[in-house]
Specification:
The protein is 77% helix and 3% strand. It has 280 residues and is mainly α. Strand 1 (175-177) and strand 2 form a beta hairpin.
Length: 280
């Protein structure tokens, strides 16, 4: 398609497909060997995603200690996953990190820009670490079905992203947030939701223990949450990079662009399944 239609930009499709195939291989290896492989890989992914997020922020010297503590929260969060302590996993970043994160900034005697730097750092931890870390918890929450549920989630999120992008590229006219991301359109969202739900209906019997109702609901849920994830990250990047067009172009192939949907689909799908099914 890219050779025949040189007037259209398929670069984002290439980037996403390569990334998702890499994740597919990682989870297959985890299924065949040990979930620790998946755990370590996702921990590294969270680190690079958070690092790129911080690179978009306008920082001061006083923020460096704050970033160090944010990075140290990553192995701690994954340690709770490894030992299967769900209670601490679910409150560590939203509660304890939120309460104690300002301390390094306060001890550094930095008052200028305090609210922006602390709140932006917490946002990054919630999206790039807390959200993505749910991918690692599936296999510890349910060793029997965890790996297949992750493959199911990754596949549907990928389908949703690609269909949304292609439909927006070809027939999309009504842009959702044209100032932040011109590739996100209402036509793409509707078509992606339909296709993702159909794919979910056909593959859920092979990858999940869900019934038909939740097999269909999963497609709708992943499509909706993936859409909001892409939209949120796009607006967030645009806000952080106002006036820095060079950095915007540099980050088009970043980790954040590749996992933006997963920051939402991973926790939403996890908690819905955990609420309605005992095997989680």
């Amino acid at each position: 398609m890219s050779k025949q239609q040189t007037d259209k930009d398929f670069s984002q499709v290439f980037v996403r497909v390569k990334t998702w195939w890499g994740m597919f291989v990682v989870f297959c290896m985890a299924t065949l060997f040990n979930p620790i492989v998946s755990l370590l890989s996702l921990m590294v992914l969270c680190f690079f995603a958070l690092k790129e997020y911080f690179s978009m922020m306008k920082t001061r010297k006083a923020d460096r200690r704050l970033f160090l503590w944010a990075y140290l929260a990553i192995p701690v969060q994954f340690y709770w996953i490894m030992i299967g302590w769900y209670g601490m996993f679910i409150v560590f970043i939203p509660v304890y990190v939120f309460l104690f994160l300002p301390l390094p900034r306060l001890l550094g005697k930095g008052t200028s820009g305090f609210l922006r730097s602390v709140s932006s750092t917490q946002w990054g931890l919630m999206l790039m670490v807390f959200g993505l870390s749910h991918l690692a918890y599936y296999q510890f929450a349910t060793p029997e079905y965890g790996a297949n549920l992750v493959l199911f989630l990754v596949l549907l999120t990928q389908v949703n992203d690609i269909v949304h992008y292609l439909i927006s590229l070809y027939i999309g006219k009504r842009k959702v947030v044209p100032s932040a991301n011109p590739t996100i359109t209402w036509e793409g969202f509707i078509c992606a939701a339909i296709v993702t739900t159909i794919v979910s209906y056909f593959i859920y019997p092979y990858l999940t223990p869900l019934d038909m109702k939740f097999g269909i609901l999963s497609g709708i849920l992943i499509s909706l949450s993936g859409f909001f994830g892409s939209l949120t990250i796009s607006v967030l990047k645009r806000d952080l990079l106002i006036g820095d067009q060079e950095k915007i172009e540099t980050l088009k192939e970043s980790y954040i662009n590749r996992v933006d949907s997963l920051t939402y689909t991973s926790p939403v799908f996890f908690h819905v399944i955990r609420y309605f099914y005992d095997f989680m």
